[in-house]
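Lecture notes, part 5. Sequence design as translation. It can be helpful to think of inverse folding as translation between two languages: the language of shapes and the language of residues. The source text, in structure tokens, appears below.
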């Protein structure tokens, strides 16, 4: 797949590609929701890490000067993508994000299938 960040972020090698579960796909800014991956046991809130489905990894990434944003190439599991499509209402756009291996920050991305 071809990965392109929507706003900020540069995909690195081995970055994880996630699809959001239905309750997360309606939120505007995933970076605010996923900035603290620790569960708050006092309020018994679910960890943001548990609301995403891992579907693949970025193989190579970097900053594209011509586009002015982060780009990369990765691979996704066909079965994981099929499961994500079954879990998420397909009438709306499916939201994806990446998380670099050296950071807890998540970035919204758009995916294009490369054949």
């Amino acid at each position: 797949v071809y990965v392109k960040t929507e706003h900020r972020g540069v995909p690195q090698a081995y970055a994880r590609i996630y699809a959001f579960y239905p309750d997360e796909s309606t939120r505007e800014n995933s970076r605010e929701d996923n900035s603290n991956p620790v569960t708050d046991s006092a309020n018994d809130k679910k960890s943001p890490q548990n609301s995403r489905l891992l579907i693949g990894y970025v193989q190579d990434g970097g900053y594209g000067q011509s586009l002015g944003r982060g780009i990369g190439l990765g691979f996704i599991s066909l079965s994981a993508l099929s499961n994500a499509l079954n879990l998420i209402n397909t009438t709306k756009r499916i939201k994806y994000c990446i998380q670099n291996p050296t950071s807890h920050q998540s970035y919204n991305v758009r995916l294009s299938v490369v054949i």
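The translated text above is only one of many valid answers, since several sequences can fold into similar shapes. The chain has one domain: 2-26+51-112.
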